[in-house]
Amino acid sequence: MQKVSKVFTKILLWTFLIGTSLFVLYPLVYVVSAAFSPKQSIAQLSIVPFGDGFTLDRFKFLFNQTDYANWFKNTFIIAVSTTVLTVLVCALSAYVFSRFHFMLKKSMMMALLILQIFPSFVGMVAIYVILLRIDGLDTLWGLILVYLAGNIPYNCWMVKSYLDTIPKALDEAARIDGANHFRIFWTIILPIAKPIITFLAITSFTAPWMDFIFPKMVLRSSKMQTVALGLFSFVSDKKNYFTSFAAGSLIIAVPFIIFFVITQKMLITSLGGAAVKE
Amino acid sequence: MTTLNADGSSKSKVLLTSILFMGLSHILYFKQYLKGALFALVEVLTLVLIPTFATKVYDMITLGEVDVTVPVMMRDNSIYMLIDGIMILAVIAILVSVYVISVRGALAEYSAFCARNGELNLKGSSLRSAVGKSFPIFGLAPAVLLIIFFVIVPLVFSAAVAFTNYSAPSHIPPSASVDWVGFENFKAMFGGESTWTGALGRVAIWTLIWGTLATLTCYAGGLIMAVVLNESKIKIKPVFRSIFILPYAVPAVVSMLVWKNLLNGSFGIVNRTLMELGLINNAIPWLSDVWLCRFVCVLVNLWAGFSYFMLLVMGNMTAISPDIYEAASIDGASKFYMFRKITLPLVLYQTTPLIIMSFTHNINNFGAIYFLTGGLPKVADSTITSAGGTDILVTWIYNLTVTLMKYNYASVLAIVIFVVMAPFAIWSFRRTKSYKEGEV
C-alpha cells in the first residue's frame, strides 16, 4: 500500500514538473523555430515547431537590411555606461548615508523613499524639455543620464542597508592608519560590498535592454534606436515580421539566458540575501 | 572686533555676522579663508542672479501670454516657463540649504572654539582637512543634483500640470498658452464629466484587481515551484530549475510580444493548434474579449513572473540555519512536519515585504499590459478617454500623454497613483531595519 502511494506521488510530481516545463517552454520554442523559419509573418508559420525548414535568412536580413547591429551597439553602450555610473554614484552616496551624520540626512533618506514609488515616466514631458534644453535629445548620454538618475533612489537604499551591516570598526581602523574617506571607500568598503554591487550591476545592466518608453522619447532617429525599440517596430501594427523579431530576440535573449542559468546559484543567494536585508 | 570671547557669550555676534553675509564669520573670526571665500562666492552669485530668479518665478506664475502676431519661435512658451520656474525653485532651495549649512557651520565652529578655550583651529583650515570634512557633500553631490533635475523637477512639473489646462487641442504651446485652472481637472475627473469619471473608476478598480491577482498568482506559483524542487528527490533537479529560470531571463518586451502574437485571434499559433487538434471549432478571442483578455494578462504575467519569486524563496530557504532542522529531527519530527512548522513560516515571514514591493511593482507594470494587449480591447468610452479594457493607470497615463496629449488629466492620474501607493511605501519603510534601529 505504502509503495503504491509512493509511486503515485512520483507520477504526480513528474507530471506536474513536465507540465509546467511545457508551459514555460511553449512560447520559447516558437521563438527559436520562428527565428530559423523561411517564412515572414506568424500567420504563415506552421503550427509544428521547425515545420517550415531551417534557414539563416532572418539573421542576414537583420544585419544587412536593418540597423540591428547599430541598435545592439547603442543598447550595449547605454547598458554599460549606466551600470558603471550607477554603481559608482549609488555606492558612494550609500557609503555617505551609512557612515556620516550630517544635516538634512533624515529628510534626504525619506525623499529617496518617496521618489521610488513614482513610475519614472510620469515626468516624461519635463524630462523631454530638460533634455531638449541641454541638447541631450537623440543622444545616448541623454538617455544614460535619465536612467542613472532614475536608478539612484531605490539602489541607494539597497546598498546603504547592506553597508550598515559591515562593522564600522573596519573603517575606523583604517582612519587611524591615516587613510582618507575616499581611500577607505575605494579599498575597504567596495571590496566587502561585492555581493550587493554585483547584484546592482546585473540589474542595472539588464534594465535598458527591456525599456521602451524612454528610448522612444529620447532617441528619435533610426540609427540611434535601441534593441527593444527596433524589435517592437517589427511587430507593431503596420508590419508583421514575426520571424525577424524572433531572430532579433534570440540574439539578445540567449546571452542573458546563458548568464542567468550559469549564475543561478549566486542569483539565488543574492536575492535571498537582499530580501533578508531590506 | 575680530576677537571672540571663549565663554560662549559671543554666540549672537557669530550668528549675526554669518547671517549678514555668507562666509563672513568664517573669514573674520576663524581664519578659514578658503571656506569663507567659497561661501562668499555663493552669496555674491545669488545676489547677482536675484533679478533672473524673480523674472523666472514671475513667468511661472503667469505662464505667459501668446501674441499671435509674433512668429511661433518667439512666442511665450508656457511649458518652458513652468519647467524653468520649477528648476529655479530647485536652485533657490539648494542655495537656501547652503546658507543654512554656512550659518550652522559657523556656530559649530564657535562652540569648538569655546571648548578649546579660545584657541583657533588653524590646522582645520588647511585644504586637505576641508576636503576631508566636506566628504559627505562631495560624495552626495552627484546623486543629489541628478535626482533634483531628472527626478524631482519632472515630478513636481507633472504634479503642477494637474492644475493647468495643458491639453490638446486648444492649449498646446507654442501656438497657444497654458493657464492655471485650480482644481478644475480634479473636478472633471471625479464627477464633473461622467465619461471620464466612469473610465477612471473602471481603470482604477481593474488596476487594483490586476495588482492583487498578478502578485498573488506569481507568489503562489514561485512558492510552489521552489518547494516542489527543494523537497523532491529528483536527480535532474538542476535541469528543471534552469527551465523555470528562463522566463526571468527573457526580456519582458520579448516575452510579452511573443505571447501577443501566439494568442492572436485569427492567425495566432495557439488558436490554430487548438483547431487542428479538433479541440475547438471557432477561434477563441483571447485578446479581444474583455474578460478573457484580463484573464490572459494575469496568466501570461504568471508565466513571466513566477521565476523571480521562485528564486527568492529558494534563496530564503538556503538562508535558514540547518541547526533548526537537526534539532527538529532529533525530536522526531517528520519531513512534512518540519516543512509546515519551520520552512513555510520562516519563508513567509521573510518574503512578506517583497509581496508588498511586488504589488506596487505590478500596479506600475507598464510592460506586462502595454506589450501584451496595448490596453485593448476597446470598450464603450475608449474613443473619448483612450482607456481600453485592460489598460491600467500607468498605461492610461501613457496613452493620454502620447496619443491624446491630455497632459492635465494624465497628471491627475499620476497624483491618484501617488495617493494609492504612498501608504505602501511608508509601511515598507517603517519595516526596514535602519528605521527600527532609529538610525534614520
Question: How would you characterize this protein structure?
Answer:
The complex is a heterodimer of chains A (278) and B (440). Chain A has 278 residues and is mainly alpha-helical. Chain A contains 13 helices and no strands. The longest helix of chain A has 34 residues, at 2-35. The radius of gyration of chain A is 24 Å and the shape is globular. Chain B is mostly helical and 440 residues long. The mean pLDDT of chain B is 82. Chain B is flat and about 95 Å long. Chain B has 19 helices and no strands. In chain B, helix 17 (393-404) packs antiparallel against helix 18.
Q: How many strands, what sense, and barrel or not for the largest sheet of chain B?
A: none
Q: Uncertain regions of chain B: pLDDT < 50 for 5+ in a row? A: none
Mass-distribution shape of chain A: globular
Helix content of chain B: over 70%
Topology order of chain A in helix (H) and strand (E) letters: HHHHHHHHHHHHH
Which percent range describes the beta-strand content of chain A? under 5%
Tell me the radius of gyration of chain B. Answer: 30 Å
- Structural class, from helix and strand content of chain B? mainly alpha
How many β strands of chain A by DSSP? 0
Largest sheet of chain A: none
Give the SSE map.
The complex is a heterodimer of chains A (278) and B (440).
Chain A: H1 2-35, H2 57-65, H3 68-99, H4 105-115, H5 124-133, H6 140-163, H7 168-176, H8 181-192, H9 194-210, H10 213-218, H11 227-234, H12 242-262, H13 264-277
Chain B: H1 11-20, H2 24-28, H3 33-62, H4 78-115, H5 127-133, H6 135-161, H7 184-192, H8 194-231, H9 237-249, H10 252-262, H11 269-276, H12 290-319, H13 322-330, H14 335-363, H15 366-370, H16 382-385, H17 393-404, H18 407-431, H19 433-436
Helix pairs in contact in B: 1-4, 3-4, 4-6, 6-18, 7-8, 8-12, 8-14, 9-12, 12-14, 14-18, 17-18
